[in-house]
Specification:
- The protein contains four helices and no strands.
- It is 88% helix and 0% strand.
């Protein structure tokens, strides 16, 4: 084979190998770019889910604090009113508490849509604790308004319920913080 033909063949082979290397490089670069976009989309999805969970927790906890405050106001109105006093303030406070309790159930449902089953069960346990405190509070109010001798016993039961409510709030906040910090149950599917 003459040197010109040999040079042409080597040049053609080198060009083909160069084109193959360039094609493989472009393919690898495109694949890397696609993977980078997929990772970014997954990260944005996880960030969006985390933000949704955080907002749902914040709304629910805001309602909880409103309820806790309104329980205190309702108890205060009942404690400062004797059996024969005007009940308008007490009824107004109890009505606001009822509205806040309805909002709590609504926020609990919304929270359940944004979190895991375990977190939703935690929120429902919290609402059950609130229900128990409200039942105890209502029984105590009736005893106070009627001058019943059971009011001391009912007051003690209500106080235990209020302490339990505070402990439940603290546990709920700590559990929520733990869920939000770990995000272990969300996968980047």
């Amino acid at each position: 084979m003459d040197p010109t033909t040999k040079g042409a063949i080597i040049g053609a082979c080198a060009t083909a190998v160069g084109a193959l290397i360039a094609w493989l490089g472009a393919r690898a670069q495109a694949k890397s770019a696609l993977q980078a976009v997929q990772v970014q989309v997954k990260a944005q999805r996880l960030d969006g889910l985390w933000q949704m969970r955080r907002d749902a927790y914040a709304d629910f906890l805001d309602t909880i604090e409103v309820i806790r405050t309104q329980i205190g106001l309702t108890i205060g109105h009942a404690a400062h009113q004797g059996p024969a006093s005007n009940t308008a303030e007490l009824l107004d406070a109890r009505e606001r508490l009822l509205d806040s309790t309805s909002a709590m159930y609504h926020k609990c449902t919304l929270l359940s849509l944004s979190v895991t089953a375990a977190e939703a069960a935690n929120a429902r346990r919290f609402t059950n604790t609130v229900d128990g405190v409200l039942r105890d509070m209502d029984a105590w109010i009736i005893a106070v308004r009627s001058g019943s001798p059971e009011q001391t016993e009912l007051s003690q039961r209500m106080d235990r319920g209020l302490r339990s409510l505070r402990d439940t709030i603290d546990r709920f906040i700590e559990d929520g913080r733990s869920y939000l910090q770990t995000v272990h149950d969300l996968s980047a599917r």
